[in-house]
Amino acid sequence: MLPTPADTRALGVALAGLARPGDLVVLVGPLGAGKTALTQGIGAGLGVREPVTSPTFVIARVHRDGRLPLVHVDAYRLGGVADVDDLDLDVTVASSVTVVEWGQGLVEQLADEHLEVRLDRRDDDVRTAVLVPHGPGWEQRLGDQP
């Protein structure tokens, strides 16, 4: 349960603590579910000092001032995998933490494994998050958490 945006950001900070170069995080959920707030927390946990805002109109933003570069992508306006290929994300994914909003079904091929975060907003405005690891690396990291 994530009762406030601060709780959603705190989850992002915790995920950043597990992050390694080459990580791909795919955020799934409706408008207002907390995808950008979670990414802000990941950025804060990585030490990104500049504001992390939704890249809706620019499609992708790269934040290089943290312990690892953060590539924040909004795939909402992308029409398919070919549009993802045009972004050349594969150039940065190996050395960065790449977080993709609205990326389900479009970006999974960028990495051998990834973390899917399913966010939702209940009628009472409380957000929920389900972490779905795809691959043994994420399974182990999430399994090691208390």
Class of secondary structure makeup: alpha/beta
**Side-by-side strand order of the widest sheet:** 2-3-4-1-5-6
What are the secondary-structure elements, in order, as H or E? Answer: HEHEEHEEEH
> Roughly what percent helix?
25-40%
Biggest sheet record: 6 strands, mixed
Beta-strand percent range: 15-25%
* Assigned CATH architecture: 3-Layer(aba) Sandwich
The CATH superfamily bears the name P-loop containing nucleotide triphosphate hydrolases
Number of strands: 6
Spans where pLDDT lies below 50 across 5 or more residues: none
CATH class: Alpha Beta
* Number of spatially distinct domains: 1
The separation of the N and C termini measures 17 Å
List the keywords.
146 residues; alpha/beta; Rossmann fold; 6 strands
Provide structural commentary.
There is one protein chain. The protein has 146 residues and is α/β, with parallel strands linked by helices. The chain has a single domain, classed as Rossmann fold (3-Layer(aba) Sandwich), CATH 3.40.50.300. Helix content is 27%, strand content 24%. It has helices spanning 5-18, 35-46, 81-86, 136-143, and strands at residues 24-28, 60-63, 70-74, 97-101, 114-121, 127-134. Helix 1 packs across helix 2 (35-46). The two termini are 17 Å apart.
Tell me the layout of helices and strands.
Elements: H1 5-18, E1 24-28, H2 35-46, E2 60-63, E3 70-74, H3 81-86, E4 97-101, E5 114-121, E6 127-134, H4 136-143
Helix pairs in contact: 1-2
